[in-house]
Design goal:
Blueprint (H helix, E strand, L loop, with lengths): L8 E5 L19 E5 L24 H6 L35 H19 L5 H9 L4 H16 L5 H22 L6 H4 L2 H21 L5 H15 L6 H21 L21 H20 L6 H17 L8 E3 L11 E3 L3 H4 L4 H6 L55 E3 L7 H10 L5 E2 L1 H6 L5 H13 L10 H8 L4 E2 L1 H6 L1 H7 L4 E5 L4 H16 L2 H6 L4 H18 L7 H23 L5 E4 L5 H8 L14 H22 L12 H7 L1
Helix pairs in contact: 2-3, 2-4, 4-5, 4-7, 7-8, 7-9, 9-10, 10-11, 16-22, 20-23, 20-25, 22-23
């Protein structure tokens, strides 16, 4: 994130040649350890080498920060953050000097306290903010993380674009400071088990979530620090109290939220957290923690690799109902209003009085009783109703499973077995004459040549198996093995001797490794701008097709057909991990295209690779495949009009599939999941 320094920041011990007076410090300290930087590209506005000058010559104490307010405006001129005294890899300073803080720093800390903390960090423990502000003066990593997230957040809500740009720049600079301090600590088991370190990880993770729409991706790298902290704390059997305990529950919410978006199991073991999981009387924060643990177990049930039994579902449902029945009265909303889009109210309004109740009431019920549909990261978009779509069904009368264990007890198709070798891999991106190439290969005797439309057309339908391969490719597996084997591909492609379009391009590297004897065709378009325009026009049209989206709620085949492309293949291929395929293709399409072609050229020996365009026609293709040139002219298939016909056909098929399942529904409701979004995150 942010601009990268040209040289690495370092911490070094030094005896200052001229001992400086630090604002707020009563005496000189010739033994100070100073944070220094080698030459860097980061603007010097926050360099620690510069002495801080408080405009008013009055230090701001941390106690004042806990109970004061400021006018929220930047002072004239540029402000410098205070110098820090730290040891290499040390989490804390030798002595607190946090009273020496500039006006901007005070403003941003108060912004965190007043604007950010309550809705995002005080849900399960209101002491988080006070503890963070108390420790910030002697913990540079914590202080810079607070400044980074406050700067970044404020930059998005300032009317003046110049001021907003300044805040965004400050946020990136503060974040770079955090990284330079954090990296040396990762191998220090004492530091990573400290509550301040875990708190920093949660704050930086929120910074990462906040920045994802801007940077076009969410790598969730700061979750790794939280995982390391929690795992080491569990290994040492440390108690979950104090600052470590308050930060833990924020980390658990972030882990679970990311797990839902990426359809994986949460990595935090809730059974090792020492929370009272019973229904005995307790305060609201304990009840909130109980339901967060239950929520994590629900997500694990939905996306676990092991088969999820109906008995497990019923046990989870019983525990949820018990929590709902026994919870304190304060969790009951004092006001509820149904959504009314006609009046400009797209989401229900749910009001509760206590913070610990506000984020924890409805989501577990929605999760247990829902199918997770369109990309969870759609909550970052303002043009879709919410992160989840809920299908209300009579679960008690039918076998029910969640996630890739579909709600209906419909068996998956049997795995295919390879009867003929894979001969040709056409690995060009979609909209690169893939259907014309399929038609040509079928004409040359390559039967069957698998195309992206087969994923949604073929019966029985293997879309759910493609989803599993996508998950393994981009999110790994429980054993951390991301290699997709020939046997896994054969389960879907066993009847095919050639593959093209989506499957061939999305899994190009994996297919090349799995079938080393196959010849590789890199089908491409000479006019990159024309390809890009076509991709935006066609691929995005499906993403914006609300008929297909709604139909995907009503049956297994439409669900997986929508899901495999709109949740996995296109976001992954075009690096649109925020879920916004439209901007992902528009922003990233051209460089992804170039990068993909270069990757293929690097993977495949020249004698086994043909770079081919539809204008080349039969001759080079037949020569490469050692086939005779047919007498028929080369067919050009699936221009823009052809794509539209495919889209109409898919909609028609999904409609028939949905109608066939209506009779078994006790009720079918399409809800936005806004309650989930509002009441948990």
């Amino acid at each position: 994130m942010g601009r990268r320094s040209q040289h690495t920041a370092c911490l070094e011990t030094s005896l200052p040649s001229d001992t400086a007076w630090y604002p707020g410090s009563p005496s000189r300290d010739p033994q100070a350890l100073r944070l220094t930087r080698e030459p860097t590209s980061v603007l010097s506005s926050i360099d620690n080498d510069q002495a801080y000058q408080n405009p008013s010559n009055n230090s701001v104490s941390i106690d004042e920060l806990l109970c004061s307010e400021i006018d929220g405006t930047l002072p004239s001129g540029d402000c410098i953050t205070p110098p820090f005294i730290a040891k290499p890899g040390s989490l804390y300073l030798d002595r607190p000097i946090g009273q020496a803080i500039d006006h901007r720093g005070a403003e941003l800390l108060l912004y965190f306290k007043e604007v950010i903390a309550k809705p995002w960090f005080e849900v399960t423990d209101p002491d988080f903010t006070n503890e963070a502000l108390r420790q910030a003066p002697r913990c540079p990593l914590l202080l810079f993380s607070l400044l980074a997230v406050s700067s970044s957040h404020k930059s998005q809500f300032v009317d003046d674009p110049d001021v907003a740009q300044d805040y965004a720049r400050y946020g990136e600079e503060y974040h770079e400071k955090c990284i330079s301090l954090l990296l040396p600590m990762l191998n220090d088991n004492e530091s990573i088990t400290d509550g301040a370190f875990l708190a920093c990880s949660t704050i930086l993770r929120w910074y990462e979530e906040l920045s994802a729409p801007i940077h076009g991706r969410d790598d969730a790298r700061h979750l790794l620090g939280g995982y390391a902290s929690v795992a080491e704390s569990i290994r040492k059997d440390l108690p979950w109290d104090g600052f470590r305990g308050t930060a833990l529950w924020i980390h658990l919410r972030q882990d679970t939220f990311n797990a839902v978006i990426n359809q994986r199991v949460p990595r935090t073991n809730v059974n090792r957290l020492g929370i009272d999981r019973s229904s005995s009387p307790a305060d609201e924060t304990t009840w909130a923690k109980r339901v967060l643990c239950l929520e994590a177990e629900v997500v694990e049930y939905c996306f676990g690799s092991e088969g999820s039994l109906i008995q497990q579902y019923k046990a989870l449902e019983a525990r949820l109902e018990d929590w709902d029945r026994q919870k304190p009265q304060t969790f009951t909303p004092v006001f509820y209003q149904e959504r009314d889009p006609s009046q400009g109210v797209p989401f229900p309004i749910v009001s509760v009085l206590l913070d610990s109740c506000d984020k924890n009431t409805a989501f577990p019920q929605i999760t247990v009783r829902s199918r997770l549909l369109k990309s969870g990261s759609a909550c970052q978009r303002d043009d879709v109703p919410g992160p989840f779509t809920v299908r209300v069904m009579d679960h008690r009368s039918r076998g029910t499973r969640c996630g890739d264990k579909c709600l209906e007890e419909v068996p998956e198709p049997p795995p295919r077995k390879r009867t003929k070798p894979m001969e040709v891999l056409c690995v060009g991106l979609p909209r690169s004459a893939t259907e014309s190439l399929q038609t040509a290969l079928l004409k040359l005797g390559y039967d069957h040549t698998y195309h992206g439309w087969d994923i949604v057309y073929e019966t029985p339908n293997y879309s759910s198996k493609w989803v599993r391969l996508c998950r393994k490719k981009w999110f790994g597996s429980p054993d951390d093995n991301t290699t997709i084997t020939k046997e896994e591909f054969d389960e879907i492609l066993g009847h095919s001797v050639a593959v093209t379009d989506a499957a061939g391009s999305v899994f190009a590297a994996e297919l090349i490794a799995a079938y080393p004897d196959a010849k590789v065709v890199l089908n491409y378009r000479k006019d990159l701008d024309a390809w890009h325009e076509s991709a935006v026009k066609t691929l995005v049209s499906v993403h914006e097709n609300w008929a297909l989206y709604i139909l995907s709620c009503l049956g297994k085949v439409p669900f997986w057909g929508w899901h495999v492309y709109e949740r996995f293949m296109w976001p992954g291929l075009f690096r649109a991990l925020d879920g916004n395929i439209e901007t992902g293709i528009a922003r990233n399409g051209k460089w992804v295209y170039k990068e993909h072609c270069n990757m293929i050229r690097g993977l495949v020996p020249k004698e086994k690779l043909l770079e081919w365009t539809v204008e080349d026609g039969w001759e080079p293709l037949c020569e490469f495949l050692d086939k005779e040139v047919p007498d028929d002219p080369f067919a050009h298939v699936n221009k823009a009009s052809g794509w539209g016909k495919h889209e109409e056909e898919v909609t028609k098929r999904y409609m028939m599939s949905a109608l066939s399942g209506v009779a078994v529904l006790s009720a079918v409701g399409i809800a936005t999941g806004a309650i989930a979004y509002k009441t948990l995150w």
